């Protein structure tokens, strides 16, 4: 279980990224965090594995205050938390399989990892993970030869190979077109259901949030301003969270097909550059 107890985070420039956040997150929950740009969604997600460190309060992970962890405890905690980023964070020149296997580094000795000598069971797990996200046939391709959606699925397979209890996904579909975004979100939800992995996902689009979340956390100016079951959320809830009326841009289904196709095309060009 993860619990925020009165957690605040002030950035070095004095900006308050989180203000007195109180949250309890049970193992296996599927949570989507929403809010306008700058509301503090990334700060909230990243504070869980201390990519950014809260400056006050307690952040309990399995009953221990992670803010008091030393480097060793922190490293151990991070092996239980998989990160999925908007930009995939793959090693582009390496094979897909090698990227996925990097999820097993936390339990591989330095000597073995230098020579890429991963255990047979880890290789099997990596291949199985690629199969679960539907891209087993890409195992031996170079990562940068894959489309954006495929690269994101490699990063999900990497987190699966890490054998984590929690996935933190920071805008995982922000660079993807609508159909590909749905494939990625369906993969995350399937893994959540099948493996009881806690998913905490930042999303921009309110229709995606309502479709895939069990619980929605709404943020504004560093504060949690809504926390409840997705089944109870309406457009009015989002208007309250955002503090303004809902616009077309807030829904993925309303996105201009032409724009998203162009974005995908330029994204692919960027990938192969
Ligand atoms: N390293 C930093 N130093 C100072 N301020 C920061 C830093 N990182 C983020 N902030 C500020 O903290 C606030 C919350 O940022 P955060 O990235 O968490 O928002 P967000 O809701 O994820 O936004 P977006 O949807 O645009 O990614 C913003 O006002 C941002 O400018």
Automatic annotation (TrEMBL):
Keywords: ATP-binding, Cell membrane, Membrane, Nucleotide-binding, Phosphonate transport, Translocase, Transport. InterPro entries: AAA+_ATPase, ABC_transporter-like_ATP-bd, ABC_transporter-like_CS, ABC_transpr_PhnC, MetN_ABC_transporter-like, P-loop_NTPase. The keyword Nucleotide-binding applies. It holds the Pfam family ABC_tran. One of its GO terms (molecular function) is ATP binding. The keyword Membrane applies. Signal peptide: none annotated. Residues 240-273 are annotated as: Disordered. It comes from the Bacteria. Residues 2-246 form the ABC transporter domain. Residues 240-254, 264-273 have a biased composition (Basic and acidic residues). PANTHER family: AMINO ACID IMPORT ATP-BINDING PROTEIN, PHOSPHONATES IMPORT ATP-BINDING PROTEIN PHNC. This is Phosphonate transport system ATP-binding protein. It comes from Geomicrobium sediminis.
């Amino acid at each position: 279980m993860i619990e925020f107890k009165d957690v605040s985070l002030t950035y070095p420039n004095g900006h308050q990224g989180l203000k007195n956040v109180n949250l309890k997150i049970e193992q296996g929950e599927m949570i989507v965090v929403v809010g306008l740009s700058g509301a503090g969604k990334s700060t909230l997600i990243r504070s869980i594995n201390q990519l950014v460190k809260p400056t006050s309060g307690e952040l309990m992970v399995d009953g221990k205050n992670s803010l008091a962890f030393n480097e060793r405890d922190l490293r151990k905690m991070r092996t239980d938390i998989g990160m999925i980023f908007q930009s995939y964070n793959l090693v582009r020149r390496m094979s897909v399989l090698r990227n996925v296997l990097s999820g097993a580094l936390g339990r591989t000795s330095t000597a073995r990892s230098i020579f890429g000598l991963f255990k047979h069971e880890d290789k099997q797990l990596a291949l199985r993970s690629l199969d679960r996200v539907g891209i087993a046939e890409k195992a031996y391709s170079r990562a940068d030869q894959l489309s954006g959606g495929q690269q994101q699925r490699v990063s999900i397979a990497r987190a699966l190979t890490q054998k984590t209890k929690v996935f933190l996904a920071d805008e995982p579909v922000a660079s993807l077109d609508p159909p590909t975004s749905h494939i990625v979100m369906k993969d995350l939800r399937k893994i959540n259901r099948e493996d009881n992995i806690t998913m905490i996902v930042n999303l921009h689009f309110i229709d995606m949030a309502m479709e895939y979340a069990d619980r929605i956390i709404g943020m504004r100016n560093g504060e949690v301003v809504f926390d409840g079951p997705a089944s109870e959320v309406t457009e009015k809830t989002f208007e309250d969270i955002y503090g303004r009326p809902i616009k077309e841009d807030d829904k993925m289904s309303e996105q201009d097909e032409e724009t998203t196709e162009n974005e995908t095309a330029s994204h692919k060009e960027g990938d192969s550059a």
